[in-house]
What we know:
The chain is an alpha+beta fold. Helix content is 52%, strand content 15%. It has helices spanning 2-15, 21-30, 37-46, and strands at 49-53, 59-63. The chain has a two-stranded antiparallel sheet. The chain is globular. The model has no long low-confidence stretch (mean pLDDT 95).
Amino acid sequence: MKSQRQAKILEIISERDIETQDELLEALKQHGFNSTQATISRDIKELRIVKELDAKGTYRYCESKH
């Protein structure tokens, strides 16, 4: 389940702009993954997801380039 959830997180952030963990939780829920904020926070850390400033001046989650 963890690997499936993490794969879905990477898919979601590659397909759309996600600014907050709440938005990410909601997107995961729409795909059938019920998680907690703490779980998502750990996933973000394990996947080395970072927030970057986009061209519109808002922050969004993306995979670390390092």
